[in-house]
Amino acid sequence: MKKHKLIIPILQVLCPLLAESTNETEDDDLAPDRAAAEVIDTMALNIPKHVFQPVFEFASVSCQNANPKFREASVTALGVISEGCLELMKSKLEPVLHIVLGALRDPEQMVRGAASFALGQFAEHLQPEIVSHYESVLPCILNALEDVSDEVKVHTGEEKGLSIQKEYYLRATTKTKY
């Protein structure tokens, strides 16, 4: 199990790479932020118990960074690991949602867009636990739908016919009725 000692240093390098600016002319696969996201996702799918805590710590610190790219990276990282680390995230959903819902109110569009992406990932992977947080999540989603940025709207589902919000709302209201 010596190889697991490298996981934290690897994540300490990869997570900040999520904040690297992507050059529009650069091949998407070679962009540092995209490459880092793919590696973090693969690690989360294969060794979730070693990935969640370092990524959560990065997100907890970076969500308060003055640099909006790091705030964006904090919620992107949480969205990226949500499939692989789903059981661990379900058990820590309250503090995870605190970070993401705070990012939905960020003054920077790129941060709000990343938060919308993360919420979409949570809606897909963190069922049914996320439904119990509908009272705090739904108002944030509805506010995001009024966002002037198309990126935020796309991630929150306006361009997809509100499918994420409709599913979330249906599950939330169905659960509370029964």
Q: What does this molecule look like?
A:
The protein has 178 residues and is mainly alpha-helical. The protein has one domain (2-177): Leucine-rich Repeat Variant (Alpha Horseshoe), CATH 1.25.10. It has 10 helices and no strands. The chain has helices at 7-17, 32-46, 48-62, 68-81, 86-91, 93-103, 109-125, 134-145, 150-156, 163-177. Helix 1 packs across helix 3 (48-62), helix 3 packs antiparallel against helix 4 and helix 4 (68-81) packs across helix 6. Mean pLDDT is 81; it is low at 157-178.
Key features of this structure:
single chain; 178 residues; mainly alpha; Leucine-rich Repeat Variant; 10 helices; globular; disordered C terminus
Fold topology:
Layout: H1 7-17, H2 32-46, H3 48-62, H4 68-81, H5 86-91, H6 93-103, H7 109-125, H8 134-145, H9 150-156, H10 163-177
Short description:
It contains ten helices and no strands. By secondary structure, it is an all-alpha fold.
Structural class: mainly alpha
CATH topology: Leucine-rich Repeat Variant
Oligomer: single chain
Count, helices: 10
Query: For the record, what CATH class applies?
Result: Mainly Alpha
Q: What is the tally of beta strands? A: 0
Low-confidence segments, ≥5 residues, pLDDT <50? 157-178
Average pLDDT, all residues: 81
Q: Whole-number radius of gyration? A: 16 Å
Main β sheet profile: none
Task: Provide the CATH architecture.
Answer: Alpha Horseshoe
Summed up, the domain count is: 1
Query: What is the general shape?
Result: globular
Strand % is under 5%
Approximately how much helix is present in the residues? Answer: 55-70%
Q: Quote the distance from N terminus to C terminus.
A: 47 Å
CATH 4th-level superfamily: Leucine-rich Repeat Variant
Provide the succession of SSEs.
HHHHHHHHHH
